[in-house]
Amino acid sequence: MTQHLLAPITLRDLTVRNRIWVPPMCQYAAAGLDGIATDYHLMHYGSFARGGAGAVILEATGVLPEGRISPQDLGLWDGAQREALRPVVDLLHSFGAAAGIQLAHAGRKASTEPEWGTAHPGASLTAADGGWETVGPSAIAYDALTAPTALDEAGIDEVVAAFAASAVRAVDAGFDLLEVHAAHGYLLHEFLSPLSNHRTDSYGGDLAGRARLLLRVVDAVRAAIPEGMPLLVRISATEWVEGGFDLAQATEVVTWLGEHGVDMVDVSSGGNAAGARIPVGPGYQTPLAAHLRERTEMPVSAVGMLDTPFQAEHVLATGQADVVRVGRAFLRAPNWGIDAALSLRGDNEIIPPPYRRAFRQQL
Ligand code: FNR
After folding, report:
1. Mind listing the pLDDT tens digit for each residue in 315-342?
2. Which residues pair with residue 104 across a beta bridge?
3. CA distance 258 to 29
4. How far is the CA of 304 from the centre of ligand 1 (A)?
5. In the annotation, is 284 catalytic?
6. How far are the Cα atoms of 234, 342, 362 from residue 358, in angstroms, in the given order?
7. Taking a C-beta distance cutoff of 8 angstroms, is the pair 119, 71 a contact?
8. What's the pLDDT band for 276 if we cut at 50, 70, 90?
9. pLDDT, tens digit, 9 for 90 and up, residues 263-272
10. From 28, 186, 203, 355, the catalytic residue
């Protein structure tokens, strides 16, 4: 049997050992509210690398303090944060995985209480509880969150510069690939969407205007990182609501991303319209990835309830995506990659040598 899942993939100068990638998942576990990674992050991310992931993409990491979802988010706006991430990168490398990081600005969904251990999970933080003023394309609130202030031209320039500066720190810390977060209703997605972007300047209006900030960020990051380093973007390919950002618009944006030097798009959905009815189920976002892969030249990764090795293998074998990302299933079973290698009967190097003897008859 051909094992697509276990086949390496090359993007620019980076070859990743397989197509089982762990997507970014916020842990809200930074030390001292300063965006600093800790032993928790070493253990958490290291376990996925040891468990066979080809690439591990670290969680949404704020490029600016006000771009964090919560005060407990990781950040990469200073050198101390960069140094705290270096051992995480080294650990991933020591287990053979590529290290990625998702650079993020939460826009109008910033300054919220973490989803656990707080009085009002996910609600806007008050100033007394350490909250801050949020920004967005327009002064339109997301659901019951506090309304943001519309970014002015100088604020937009600052966001672009912050993404580029964080990218430089990520390169310095040793990351192999970078991902720009333009999904799930955070700042760059908010600009893309006609629901949240009512601007009348050159950053609003038609799709080209709404995509302008994302393309500026991509250009700035691309220019700041080595030519051989892959740059990824995560998008919400549809908002699942009438009149929102949809697959037709996403197809155009992905084409532009390719022209601006993006190497792969991760295809997620939703997050910018509170009332959206999302048809959640096994592989529910994969058709979006397949559509974009077919209509554009862009390599894509598929994500969303691709929980079993055979299901993930099928997505790749049928040409719906180039890479599969496995999130919550890796939280449940951090040796998901080893299990996949055994299930697919792939005598693969991701099975640690001390385990090989135990599994010999299954290989
Ligand atoms: C997420 N997700 C997410 N997405 C993202 O782009 N940046 C992030 O930081 C996070 N944070 C996050 C935390 C946790 C605890 C979960 C469960 C999810 C979404 C995630 O990357 C993925 O797209 C979804 O979980 C769907 O994939 P699975 O879990 O069904 O494989």
Report:
1. 999 999 999 999 999 999 999 999 999 9
2. 62
3. 34
4. 8
5. no
6. 39, 11, 9
7. no
8. very high
9. 999 999 999 9
10. 186
In the block, which residue shows the tokens 């740059």?
A: 231
Q: Which of 22, 25, 178 to mutate to test the pocket of ligand 1 (most atoms within 8 A of CB)?
A: 25
The span from the CA of 210 to the CA of 198, in Å, is 9
Mutate to test the pocket of ligand 1, among 20, 21, 26, 331 (most ligand atoms within 8 A of CB): 26
Question: Would strands 14-16 and 9-11 be described as parallel, antiparallel, or unpaired?
Answer: antiparallel
Q: Which residues of 35-71 are buried (b: 16+ CB within 10 A; e: fewer)?
A: bbbbeebbebbbbbbbbbbbbbbbbbbbbbbbbbbbb
Residue 250 to residue 292: CA distance in whole angstroms: 8
With both helix axes pointing from N to C terminus, report the angle between 286-295 and 247-259 in degrees, rounded to the nearest 10.
Answer: 50
259 burial level (CB within 10 Å; 0-12, 13-18, 19+): exposed
For 339, the enclosing helix (H) or strand (E) is helix 336-343
How open is the CA angle 95-26-322, to the nearest 5 degrees? 60
| Token pair in block for residue 169 | 């720190």
Measured between its terminal Cα atoms, the distance across the chain in Å is 12
